Amino acid sequence: MSFGGFGKLAAGASDAVTAWSVSIPQETLDNLITLLKATPLAPATYENSLPDRQRTLGVWRDWITATKEHWQTRFSWRAQEEYINSFPHFKAHVVDDELGPFDIHFAGLFSQRSDALPILCLHGWPGCFVEFLGILDMLRTRYTPATLPYHLVVPSLPGYAFSSSPPIDRNMESDSAARILNQLMTTCLGLESYMIQGGDLGVRIGRVVAANYPESCKAIHLNTSPMPPPELTNKSSPISASEQAGLDRHVLFKQTGSPYAYAHATRPSTVGLMLSSSPVALLAWVGEKYLDWTDETPDLDTILACITLYWVTNCAATSLWSYRQFYGPGAASHGTKRWHIHQPLGFSWFPREITPVPRAWIETTGNLVFYRQHDKGGHFAALEQPQLLWKDVEDFIAAVDSMEMK
Questions:
Q1: Which of 107, 168, 217, 272, by CA, is between 20 and 30 Å from 139?
Q2: Where is the signal peptide (predicted)?
Q3: DSSP per-residue codes, 109-163
Q4: What CATH number did the domain enclosing 202 receive?
Q5: Which H helix or E strand runs over 103?
Q6: Is 101 a member of any domain?
C-alpha cells in the first residue's frame, strides 16, 4: 500500500526496517470467542454490585457481563484491523548489546520535507500504539507528505503487542528499552536527532532516553510524571487550586487505585499467568483502568480493540517487566537527579490524570519551558484528547524554536 506517500521512510533508513501489516489468524480470533463463551462469571456480590454502578471496590459485574457479551457477539476485530492497517506499519530488527535481537513494531507517518522533525511517541501500560492513531489520523488529514512538518514514529514497546518480548534469562529495565528505542530512531531509521512525546510508561522510558542520549533526544514532552513530593523553595511556582485538588485526589488513588502496580512489581509471574489464561480476567483487570483513569469513558469498541490486542499477541505477561524498577522494595524514582532532563521539557496537565503533578514539582525534574493545564482529559491523553495534546506538542515545539532563535 502507498498510504498516500506517508509510508516512505526517511532517506537514511537502513534495510533493517521492513514494511509490515497486522493480520491476526482467524483461528486465534475463533479461539478467543470460544473462551469468552465458555468462561463463567463470578456470582453477584456486595462488592461487585454497589448501587449507582459505583466502582470504589473494583469493576462492577454488570459492566463485565454486558461487555463480555458485546465482545463475543458484536465486536469486530477485522474492522479494527482494517483501520489499524490504514496507517503505515513497519518492523525494525534491533540488536541490543546486552539483551540480544529485538524486532520492534511501529506505526508512523513520514514526511518528504528535509527539515521534518522526528517525534517518537511512547505509550504505556495498559496502553498500546493504538492510543496515538487518532493523532496520526488528524495529521494525515491536515497535511500531505510534502507538507507534514514531522516524522511520527509510534512503536509497540518491547514486550507489547507486535514487538519482541524481553528474554527469559535476563532482566529488562527502562535503560534497556531506552537503548533499543534510541537505536530504532538513529541506527535503523537514520534520524540523528528527535524529540519524544510520552505518557505512562512512555514517560519513564522517555526520561531515561533523554538522560542517557542527549546527543540524539533534543526535547521531550510529557503528560504525566510520577514522582514523590520534591523540596520546594520560595522561587517555585505556586500550586494552583486545581493542582492541589489533583494532589488531594492522588492521595486517594495511592490508597485505593495503585495496588495493581505493586502486584505487577512483586508478583508479575502470578499476574501474568492469570491474565494470559482468561480473556475475562484480562477484561476485568484492564477494562477497570479504562473506566477509572479516563475523564470520559472511551468508545467500548476502542477499549476492546486494545484489550483484544493484548490477548491475540499474548503480551499480558510480557508487558509487566517495567514495574519491578519503579514500584515495591528498592524502587527507583523519576524525582531523582539520575533522570533530570537538561533538554527543553514540556508538560501537559489533565485533571483526571492519576498522577497529576503540579508545575512546581515538574520544574524540579528538568528544564521546563512549556506547561499547560486543561479542564478535561485523563490518563490516556493521546486517546482521549488528541487535538488538545497535539496542540500542546506543537506549541511546545514553537517555544523550543523561539528559544533557539534568541
A1: 217
A2: none
A3: E----TTPEEEEEE--TT--GGGGHHHHHHHHHH--TTT--EEEEEEPPTTSTTS
A4: 3.40.50.1820
A5: strand 100-109
A6: yes
From CA 94, how far away is CA 100, in angstroms rounded? 8
Helix (H) or strand (E) holding 247: helix 241-256
Domain range holding 315? 3-23+79-405
Render the burial of 56-88: b for 16+ CB within 10 Å, e for the rest: eebbbbebbeebbeebbeebebeebbeebbebb
Domain presence at residue 383: yes
Identify the DSSP state of 120.
E
Residue 374 lies in a domain: yes
Give the chain's domain count. Answer: 1
The percentage of residues in the chain with a pLDDT greater than 90, rounded to a whole number, is 90
**Rounded CA separation 348/239 (Å):** 15
Phi-psi region of 100 (alpha: psi -120 to 50; beta: other; left: phi over 0): left
Q: Note whether residue 257 is domain-resident.
A: yes
Q: What is residue 119's DSSP assignment?
A: E
pLDDT range class, residue 247, cuts 50, 70, 90: very high
Amino acid at 397: I
End-to-end CA distance of the chain: 43
What is the mean pLDDT of the segment spanning 215-231? 95
